Every structure is written in structure tokens, then in C-alpha cells.
Amino acid sequence: MPRSQPTVSDHLLQRLEAWNVRRIFAYPGDGINGIMGALRRVTEDDGNERFDVVQVAHEELAGLMATAHAKFTGEVGVCLATSGPGAIHLLNGLYDAKLDHQPVVAIVGQQAFAGVGGSTQQETNLRSILQDVASAFLETLSSPEQLRHLIDRAFRAAIGGRTVAAIIVPHDVQQKPAVLEPPQEHGRQHSAPGFVPPRLLPRDEELRRAAAVLNAGRKVAIIAGAGALHATDEVIAVAERLGAGVAKALLGKAAVPDDLPFVTGSVGWLGTPASNRMMRDCDTLLLVGTNFPYTEFLPEEGKARGVQIDVEPRNLSLRYPMEVALAGDSAETLSALLPLLGDHRAESWRGDIEGWVRESRALTDRQAHAPAEPINPLRVIWELDQRLPDDAILTADSGTSAYWLGRDIRLRRGMKASVSGSLATMGCGVPYALAAKLAFPERPVIALVGDGAMQMSGLSALIDVAKRWKLARARGKGWPDQRFVVLVLNNRDLSYVTWEQRVMEGDPRYAATQTLPDLAYADFARLLGLDGVRVERPEDVASAWERALASDVPFVIDAVVDRNVPTLPPELKAEQEDKLAKALASGDADADAVLDQLQLQEVTQR
Ligand SMILES: Cc1ncc(C[n+]2csc(CCOP(=O)(O)OP(=O)(O)O)c2C)c(N)n1
Ligand SMILES: [Mg+2]
Questions:
Q1: In degrees rounded to 5, what are phi and psi of residue 416?
Q2: From the CA of 390, how far away is ligand 2's center (Å)?
Q3: Domain ranges, residue 82
């Protein structure tokens, strides 16, 4: 303890240490100055290197980084923000964690209890603000004696429920003398830290029923999601045995490597034609750890028999009516299923799938090399795919970058990738990448980000990247692997939504809401002491990647790309085709260029 009489804030940090918290994503304010003082004491006065305080440029970034930390490490993400505006800024990042089922603990300040209720400055009703996002656990620390059990329960609720927990700590309570051990009196709690989630396995009878359905299938299709990220070997083994193909939901992109011949890649709006074809023709659907929301891309009800594995009972039999819905951990359940499965490797289905995968890849190659004005965004992605470093961690923002990551980047074994999946918030790409780099400084990290997302908050997050990189340099040689690349798809457009407006609403591009100013993203990087290049010709794309991946400084590629290259689902429904035609005939200023691109990208021929 740093002082003879520790405060509640000192005790709080001690308890976080007991939960193995190492990194705190934070932004200060008077509502948490008591905690900041304790952090300073414990890190500087005591020389305790236990806490790495990541000061961000905006609290939303702290929430997103905490989420990404949880996603990439499996640990609890911890973020800290002040009362009122700080907590409000944090919210979007916390919702990202909640919707993607990540354990995150948020600690927020509040004005001193002594003044609360008096409309004091920065006083907001934090319980109301946080009660939805932190519905699993939300408490106000009112008495020093609560400290141990509130922290312990917040962590257990976050880990056990794979969700967000929040603790509000009023300013005056932060400075009170700690009560390290409450007296043994009626109503007191005597809590200890620590929790390991249990094994979760379905009953034997249910496993046998699932195996019977899978064994009866001749054309089994698997979709793996985020819940299968730790079950790579098990998914592969089951797919091999069943002669099945494996498609992936976006958050499950890294669950199974893309270089296996029976892996069809992503499925859905940003899915490959191979996945789409497999979904259409399969007779049995096996969902593993996914709550994939695009139900229109699943087989029609009744056309396939369904088996699902998910740890969360409320996710079972939701997107498709399942014949057998197994509540269980994906790795454990697949391992238990494997001995019950017959050998289907000789089926022709597997050959069909491999053919579709080859066709999809050939299509990507042609699409990437089609001309565009000035650069085809897929060409930029394709050139990265050709030289993706081993062990890379990729992030993408919400927008066309997520589409290209999902559809056209082939992950190899050991790589990681994530996005804001269910919330699909813009602005996740760069903070996710920085959280990945801080957790894995020995691995290359690459963020794919739209210009709109860059302008929304990516530029602020780049300030954090520069700060952390300089800090690593000041402390030694910098990151063991220096590679940190941000690709900005600079299309001067909120392009993903422009395309949605056309295809889903039948509306032409609305210039007033869709057009973005052209910024010099590489120059901005250099302004921060980083490096970058602006690419305006297709022939310069490959060398830009070579430079970026050889740079010993975080590097921004500002790629000037064509907003009219379509980011459409693998197959348009008749209604969508009609809407697109209507949009283009309704005064869309880009109509001619779009029509050209639809042809070049082979959309119209399909
Ligand atoms: C916070 C937030 N606001 C709005 C949206 C809706 N939205 C999804 S993608 C997108 C366009 C993103 O534009 P940009 O970052 O430039 O990427 P592009 O699609 O042009 O490559 C928008 C507005 C969102 N997902 N999140
Ligand atoms: Mg854009």
C-alpha cells in the first residue's frame, strides 16, 4: 500500500490487481481525480509497473479499446471515465462490448455524494444512463465496505455473462479511508476475487440426436462464428468427417483458416458466392457459436435440417428453426460429437464446395484487376492479401472496409481479425488496432478504415497510436514488431450507406449526406511524427504496401479509391435489382459510372 492509510481508490486498484488487470483505458476528469491520484501513486511513487494506463483522446475510444482488448486477449477489458460527459462518451464503446458479448468492466466517477441531487455541475443520472448497457451489474459504491464485493461481482458478472458491468464511484467516496476487511456484522459481505467459467456440455442424449441429424445429411454446411474462435481444430475435424463446407460469420472470420479448400469464406451481405451457393444447396445446416443476423442468407425454412451449438440458450433456434439446439461450448461440444459422426468424406458435396471456392477466388482476382477511377478499392485489398504477414491481426471499420475484410482477405492459421459486429459502429477500426498492438506488440497489426470513420474518430485514435508508439520508443526499442498500418479507403463518400440507399430503398445517392471532404490522411500521419503515403494510381498500390509493411513507424496508406465499385451481396434478389435500377434512374449523379462498374465487377451478368 502506498500510504499508511489507504483510500478507497487505493483499495480499488489493489482489487483490480487481484483480478489481474494490467491495462486500463482511461480519460481523466474531476469526477475520478481520487482514482487518478491513486493510480499516480501506485505507478510513479511506488514504481509499480503493474498498471499500464492508456490515456485516449476520447472516452469512446477507451470503451472500444476495452472491448477490443477483451476480444483479442480473452481477458476482461477495463475502462475508466469521469462523471457526466465522460460516462456518456464511453457508452458507445460499452454497447459494442455488450452486443458482441465481451467482458468489460467500466468504472465511472460521479460528483460527490455530498452535492448529488443539487444539479451540481456534471451531475447526470448515471444509473439511468448506464442501466441498459450494464444491466448485468450496475452499482454505486457508497460505502468503503462495499469495495471488495462490488469489484468482485462486477468481474464475475462480466466474465460469466460475457457482458458489461459498471461501477459508479462518487468523488467523495474515492477519498475515504479504505475498509480492507469489513467487520463481521449482520449484512456485511466477505467476498474474494477470482472466477473461471464452467465447462458447458449438452446431455449425451442430445448429442446423439444431433449426430443422427448430421449423419443423415449428404450436404452439410457449417457456419462458424465468434463462439468458434477457440474451436479451430474441432470445427475442422467435424467438417472433414462430414465432408462439409465451412462458411464464417464476420466475427468468426479467424475461426477457420481461409486456405483450406472446403472453407467458403464469409457468408451474408459481405459473403462470397461460394458461401451463398453452399447455403442454397445444403441439406443440413450446423451453426457453431454464431448469432449471424442475416437470416435471408440462410436456407429457406424447412429446406435444411438444422443443428446449432451455442453457449447462450437465448441464441438457440432463433435465426433458423433447429431440430437439435445444443447449449454448450463449441469446442467441448464438437469434441463430444466427433466420435458419434460417420465418415462422409467420399460424398460429391465436398467436391462441389471446393469447385465453388475456386470459382469465388477466380472472381475476386478478376474483380480486383478491373479498372476504376482512379483506383479499385478491391485492388488495394487484393495487394494486401498477397503479402499478409504471418500472425497479423486485422481490424476493419464499419463500411466497405468490413465488406472487403470479410469477403476478400484470406486469413491463415494464427491470424486474428475483428470488427464491431453487432453494433457495427463506425470508428472501431483504429482503436481496435491500437488495443491489439498494446496486447500483442510482437505481432503486425493492420487496420482497414473508411474515410468517414477516419473523420469521425479515427484521426483522434491515430493521435493515441502516435503517443503510444513514441512512449514505446522512449522506453526502449519500441514495439518488438514495428508494423502498424492503417489503410484509409479514401472514397470521399459514406459509400457503404450510399449503396444501401440504392439497393434497399431504391433511392439515388444523396450528395448532401454522403459526400465527404478529401483530407490528406498520410500528411496527418506525418504531422504526428508517423509516416504515410497517398496513392492515386493502381500501379503504386503494391509498392505502398511494401513500404508500409517495411516501415518501422506506424504507417498510413491514403488510398484514393472509387466509390462506385459496388459492395453488394453475392446475389441480388429481384426486388433489390429493381430498386437499384430505380435508384439509378432517379437522378443519381453517379449512375453512368455505377452502371459501368456493375458490368466490370460482373454484377449484371450474374
Ligand atoms: C456511429 C455510426 N454512424 C453511422 C453508421 C451508419 N454507417 C455504416 S457504414 C457508413 C459509411 C461509412 O463510411 P466510410 O467510413 O467513409 O466507409 P466507406 O463505406 O465509404 O468505405 C455509415 C454512415 C454507423 N454504422 N455507425
Ligand atoms: Mg468512405
A1: -125, 155
A2: 28
A3: 8-174
